[in-house]
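Methods — Computational structure assignment.
A single polypeptide chain was analysed. Its primary sequence is given first, followed by the predicted tertiary structure written as structure tokens.
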Amino acid sequence: MKPGVYMMIDSLGNIIYVGKAKNLKNRVSQYFNHQKDRTPKVVEMIHRIHTLKYIVTDTELDAFIEECRLIKEIKPRYNKQMKTDKKYCYIKIMAERYPKVTK
């Protein structure tokens, strides 16, 4: 499957987590495989999932940009990064022969 962004939604319709993936199917299925190394917070989040939605993107960069935008806009409960202005995700593309993307 292609790269993209996935959203975990609770029973009230609130988006509680936004993530990105190189391969949406593989990444989302990891949440539902029984893993012993999950933190209590991740286990709690998984129990709250009622619906999953996803957006397929053409590239990983597109997924990264969309994830940043959604987290900034929605501020999902379980996304701890990018919640304060100091930690928002920014993309800087320089006018070089081979542009690079940085956080």
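Note: The domain at 4-102 is CATH 3.40.1440.10 (GIY-YIG endonuclease).
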